[in-house]
Design a protein that fits this description.
By secondary structure, this protein is of the alpha+beta class. Helices cover 28% and strands 23% of the residues. The protein has helices at residues 2-22, 46-55, 66-76, 158-161; strands at residues 30-32, 35-39, 59-60, 83-89, 98-99, 104-105, 125-129, 137-141, 148-154. It binds calcium ion (3 copies). Residues 90, 94, 118, 123-124, 140 line the site of one calcium ion.
């Protein structure tokens, strides 16, 4: 397990470094894989957070699998904020979790044990929660909560760099 994390961190450093050198991502965005990520500084309701990301030509992060999930978690360990929106919602059909950017059902998930709870029949949006007890896993929360946005956009020419 330790080896895996080290490998992932090493890959992140390599990709991050290359991408920075190739300026694939704008200044305040973080490069990883074929994407750029913006970790917002203002807490917003879910749909306002999505709008914020769209204004920056992105969308709330779509976590495609474990590798991307680990990258996000490792990055958030060094951030001040502890509760962050990701682009996942069951707003349309309760219990069916869809990625907002592609309208695809989530294949990979990383729920905190015991979640999702749909507490108060009012938890339709998903946060990445660094609070003790959640420890960097996912939780369904009310969409009108004010949390920090994690935006993602594809990086243009990372293939040339990599
Ligand atoms: Ca992604
Ligand atoms: Ca729900
Ligand atoms: Ca919950």
């Amino acid at each position: 397990m330790l080896m895996n994390i080290e490998t992932v961190v090493t890959l992140f450093l390599i990709f991050g470094f290359n991408a920075t050198a190739g300026t694939d991502c704008l200044n305040n965005w973080t490069a990883h894989g074929n994407s750029c990520y913006l970790f917002g500084h203002q807490s917003l309701p879910f749909y306002t957070a999505e709008h914020y990301c769209r204004q920056h030509n992105g969308h709330l992060v779509h976590i495609n699998g474990k590798e991307e999930n680990v990258f996000i978690r490792e990055h958030l360990r060094y951030m001040k904020g502890i509760r962050w929106w990701i682009g996942l919602t069951d707003d349309d059909v309760e219990g069916t979790w869809m990625w907002y950017d592609t309208n695809e059902e989530a294949m990979y998930t990383d729920w905190t044990p015991g979640q999702p709870t749909n507490s108060g029949n009012n938890e339709d949006c998903v946060e990445f929660d660094m609070t003790a007890g959640y420890d960097g896993h996912w939780n369904d929360a009310p969409c009108d909560m004010h949390l920090l946005p994690i935006c993602e956009r594809s990086s243009g020419n990372i293939d040339i760099v990599g």
